[in-house]
Design brief:
Helices cover 48% and strands 17% of the residues. It is α+β, with helices and mostly antiparallel strands. It folds into 2 domains: 43 residues; 86 residues, His-Me finger endonuclease fold, CATH 3.40.1800.10. Strand 1 and strand 2 form a beta hairpin. The N and C termini lie far apart (79 Å).
Length: 159
């Protein structure tokens, strides 16, 4: 049994949410019902409060666009199971240029794609969206890509 710090009721431990800190799992101080009520109250708070929060987030993003972009990149890499530190080092070494077409990243807000082996997770290179999509459309099949190249060479004169 545990006492909720908000409603002061004694409740079973399964009525309390949990969180992890420094490798240890702890029970929250407020019960799930009180936590839900607090979250709903916060979500449904005044429009003025919501507008102030949106303005603060926007101002922060305008002051530090590079931090926001870097954070988005790293979160995306982590979500894909790619080591963010290795990918960041690789990204900085290639100065925002695609390794296939050589063009600079046309949209700095959209990071170059980290081309990686889906089996091993090993980074192969940094590609622009078009080149990365092209490889994906060909299912990373070199034979099919070579056939596509041959097709283009054969039909390049036809208009």
């Amino acid at each position: 049994m545990k006492t909720c710090r908000k409603c002061n009721e004694n409740k079973a431990l399964d009525e309390f949410g949990s969180f992890k800190s420094k490798g240890k799992i702890y029970k929250r101080g407020d019960c799930k019902a009180c936590a839900r009520k607090y979250a709903n109250d916060w979500r449904n708070s005044s429009e003025e409060m919501k507008a102030r929060r949106r303005a603060a987030v926007k101002a922060s993003a305008e002051r530090h666009p590079d931090v926001i972009i870097r954070s988005r990149r790293r979160k995306a890499w982590k979500r894909l199971g790619i080591d963010p530190d290795a990918a960041e080092a690789y990204y900085l070494a290639h100065k925002g240029q695609c390794e296939i077409c050589g063009k600079s990243n046309p949209n700095p807000e959209r990071a170059l794609a980290v081309d990686h082996c889906h089996t091993t997770g090993k980074i192969r290179g940094m590609l622009c969206g078009n080149c990365n999509s092209g490889i994906g459309f060909f299912k990373e099949d070199i034979e099919v890509m070579l056939k596509a190249i041959a097709y283009l060479k054969t039909h390049s004169a036809v208009v």
